[in-house]
Amino acid sequence: MSKMMRRVAGILSLCIASLWCGCSAHANAVVLLDTPEAAMDLTERIMEKVADDNIESGIFLMRPFFRLPKEEFNILLEQSKLQIPVIKDRFGAPLEHELIEQRFIGKSLMRIVHLQKYKYHAMRWIFVFYNPDGSWYINSFNFDDKIKELF
Q1: Residues 84-129: pLDDT tens digits?
Q2: Does residue 67 register a pLDDT over 80?
Q3: Assign residue 97 a region: left if phi > 0, alpha if psi is -120 to 50, beta otherwise?
Q4: Which of 59, 64, 96, 79 is nearest to 19 (CA)?
Q5: pTM given for the model
Q6: How far apart are CA 39 and CA 61, in angstroms?
Q7: CB 104 within 8 A of CB 26
Q8: Among residues 65, 136, 66, which one has the least CA distance to residue 102?
Q9: Domain ranges of the chain
Q10: Closest C-alpha among 83, 90, 141 to residue 113
């Protein structure tokens, strides 16, 4: 991974970590998903946007399902947008995506992992959903190029 990509990835990781810790009662109302299949459908729609070379729109699709205040989500979106030119330069044009894993931890956590293929490299997209009381919402997400960790 290039020095620039590591730097941008580090900035995004710090931003995401601070946003996860900063969730509060002031978060806007979140749209809940009734089933794991609905969560899977949401990630498929997000990844279709990413594969169509529109990461920003893909991330924006998460907004109603992510328990973050609007202002914090906007920061996350802006930080993600900083990575787009680096991704295009390093990885090439986006190709298709594929589902790698849907995994449950107990009844309350679900992780969905997709692989976004590019001309020269691939990125993993990890979505974690939380189900505190019968409905699912996005608890966290991340994308990076650590594809060796998929093995």
Answers
A1: 888 989 999 999 999 999 999 999 999 999 999 999 999 999 999 9
A2: yes
A3: beta
A4: 79
A5: 0.79
A6: 12
A7: no
A8: 136
A9: 3-150
A10: 141
Quick one: tokens of 77? 């979106």
In this structure, what are the phi and psi dihedrals at residue 113, rounded to the nearest 5 degrees? -120, 130
Backbone region of residue 92 per phi and psi (left: phi > 0; alpha: psi in -120 to 50; beta: other values): left
Output phi, psi for 56, to 5 deg.
Answer: -60, -45
**CATH number, domain 3-150, options 3.10.450.50, 3.30.1130.10, 3.40.50.150, 3.40.50.2000:** 3.10.450.50
Which pLDDT does position 25 carry in this prediction?
37
pLDDT digits (tens, 9 = 90+) for 5-54: 554 455 444 444 444 444 433 445 889 999 999 999 999 999 999 999 99
What is the model's pLDDT at position 1? Answer: 54
> Amino acid letter at 8?
V
Candidates 99, 97, 105; CA nearest to 128 is 105
